[in-house]
């Protein structure tokens, strides 16, 4: 059986597991663990608190030196509300494209890695290959943090990491960091005919949202800027707003979520501090003058750092040689790479088959051409580790 056929069959199996982030990924993880066991490869599972999700970590080859880590997440985004032409959890080939949720983001890469396991064990690797597959990446790089807790205490860590997010097999050296927050504005309800006696939670939430928008305008105007990005500055964005029960009731609660996607060099904390200070010193003071029970609370949803790898480093040069492509770029989407770099000090880049243009959409697909290119890259990587 050709490698491409093996890759497609493995991808078919992986797509068949509905690993939407709010569901368990254990079926898929146990399949991978069983697959590796068949080739004599031991793996470690790191579960979440519920025991219904897990990361997987395995080493192929020597354990006394570092090597190359191949990393990917096993969860996918929801399909609810999307109009698919095919069953999203049944891989379907049409016109040299493989349709299915996660085919590009990023089960295609995981399938390619697993398809090359026989080659990895049949050659004498002079440096090991580590496999790291995580859960809950799509909701803010949450699950991999438990895996990092394990890896921090290992005597030998990988020398470098390749995250196989869809980059059309181009080298990506950087992305922005992200922090997202949920804000609850607690007002004081009353009849709308007595509106001045109440505290309108929706109104005060709107004022804070407008302030966040003002900060976004300031960043767009004043920077700092990084021209390597499609959007070359730090952005602030409010995504959801919920509040109120009836038009004739002054609402006592409003909730909204906002995020900051920041340049690697920028610390988003100063923006968060400005937002919290405005809420505390301007809005809440006014709210409390009417009712002491009112307030504004902030809850952390997700935080992960940006990624930036020196484009002149030996690692980047090495991967570019394997790809026979001297180009590199930065991307708008986030990955677990910043965490590997920050927590473990592992040089990391992003390079995988498929395009982010297809990710998170109905009719997500991975082209056969990209599947082939991804496989060729892994073949070159394995060969380079046996020289």
List keywords for this structure.
387 residues; alpha/beta; Aminopeptidase; Alpha-Beta Plaits; 2 domains; 34% helix
Helix and strand topology:
Blueprint: H1 3-16, H2 26-38, E1 43-47, E2 54-60, E3 68-73, E4 92-94, E5 97-99, H3 103-115, H4 117-122, E6 129-134, H5 144-151, E7 160-163, E8 171-175, E9 177-186, H6 201-222, E10 235-243, E11 253-262, H7 269-288, E12 295-304, E13 307-308, H8 314-323, E14 328-331, H9 337-344, E15 348-350, E16 365-367, H10 368-384
Parallel strand pairs: 3-6, 3-7, 7-15, 8-14
Antiparallel strand pairs: 1-2, 2-6, 4-5, 5-16, 8-13, 9-11, 9-12, 10-11
CA(first)-CA(last) distance: 26 Å
Shape: elongated
Mean pLDDT: 96
Summed up, the domain count is 2
Order of helices and strands: HHEEEEEHHEHEEEHEEHEEHEHEEH
How does this model look, in words?
With 387 residues, the protein is an alpha/beta fold. It has 2 domains: 3-175 and 306-384, Zn peptidases (Aminopeptidase), CATH 3.40.630.10; 177-304, Alpha-Beta Plaits (2-Layer Sandwich), CATH 3.30.70.360. 34% of the residues lie in helices and 23% in strands. It has helices spanning 3-16, 26-38, 103-115, 117-122, 144-151, 201-222, 269-288, 314-323, 337-344, 368-384; strands spanning 43-47, 54-60, 68-73, 92-94, 97-99, 129-134, 160-163, 171-175, 177-186, 235-243, 253-262, 295-304, 307-308, 328-331, 348-350, 365-367. Strands 1-2-6-3-7-15 form a 6-stranded mixed sheet, sandwiched between helices. A hairpin with a 6-residue loop joins strand 1 and strand 2. The mean pLDDT is 96.
